[in-house]
Write a structure and sequence with these properties.
The complex is a heterodimer of chains A (110) and B (113). Chain A is mostly beta strands. Helix content of chain A is 0%, strand content 45%. Chain A is built from no helices and 11 strands. In chain A, the strands form 3 sheets. In chain A, strands 2, 5, 6, 9, 10 and 11 form a 6-stranded mixed sheet that branches. A 3-stranded antiparallel sheet of chain A has the order 3-8-7, with no helix packed on it. In chain A, strands 1-4 form a two-stranded antiparallel ribbon. In chain A, strand 5 and strand 6 form a beta hairpin. By secondary structure, chain B is mainly β. Chain B contains no helices and 11 strands. Chain B is globular, with a radius of gyration of 13 Å. Classes of the chains: A mainly beta (110), B mainly beta (113).
């Protein structure tokens, strides 16, 4: 069974500080990983996915298959980054499902 | 495009009542799904559909039914509401499947007394 673990519920940092939101996964095949974000009073939306290898709003995430991790990083946090972040996992096999972690609240203080 | 729309935004039910949460998308997406979001639990998949006429169960399907008679609509039915179904419900869609970005609706906040 596939599983996504986000070990922390809350991360609070000051503006300008580096941010790392942790995500570990459990899956025996070839995973596809995503980060979704939910800003206050907005819909859940895709932030980035590992297959695109892109940087969105200054955030990057590298898939580390050896450590089964997909941590989300940003070198300098901004107040507008405050939101709920979910890591999610799927695969390319038949009957695949999208499994979400429990989410982490990022609070960026001025 | 309106994207993914959900109605109602809020609903209060009594135990045992039934109701249907509506979800519609106007993006011609084949894949649609329903999640529930509970504090400390993240999002859990209830049911999903890979196209009109095809539905399947997710992680927490008990107490819920779905149907997909058209590409656009994917209603979620609560057969006999229970307090454990108090949650925020999200509908999502994507063009073909899970490897693409999922587009989420605004959510329905349901309280079962």
């Amino acid at each position: 069974a596939q599983r996504v673990t986000q070990p922390e519920k809350l991360l609070s940092v000051f503006k300008g500080a580096p941010v790392e939101l942790k995500c570990n996964y459990s899956y025996s095949g070839s995973p596809e990983l995503f980060w979704y974000v939910q800003y206050s009073r907005q819909r859940l939306q895709l932030l980035l996915r590992h297959i695109s290898r892109e940087s969105i709003k200054g955030f990057t995430a590298d898939l580390n298959k050896g450590e089964t991790s997909f941590h989300l990083k940003k070198p300098f946090a901004q107040e507008e980054d405050s939101a709920m972040y979910y890591c999610a996992l799927t695969n390319t096999g038949a009957n695949s499902k999208l499994t979400f972690g429990k989410g982490i609240t990022l609070s960026v203080r001025p | 495009n309106a994207g993914v729309t959900q109605t109602p935004k809020f609903q209060v039910l009594k135990t045992g009542q039934s109701m249907t949460l509506q979800c519609a998308q106007d993006m011609n997406h084949e894949y649609m799904s329903w999640y529930r979001q509970d504090p400390g639990m993240g999002l859990r998949l209830i049911h999903y559909s890979v196209g009109a006429g095809i539905t399947d169960q997710g992680e927490v399907p008990n107490g819920y039914n779905v149907s997909r008679s058209t590409t656009e609509d994917f209603p979620l039915r609560l057969l006999s509401a229970a307090p454990s179904q108090t949650s925020v419900y999200f509908c999502a869609s994507s063009y073909r499947g899970l490897q693409e970005a999922q587009y989420f609706g605004p959510g329905t906040r349901l309280t079962v007394l």
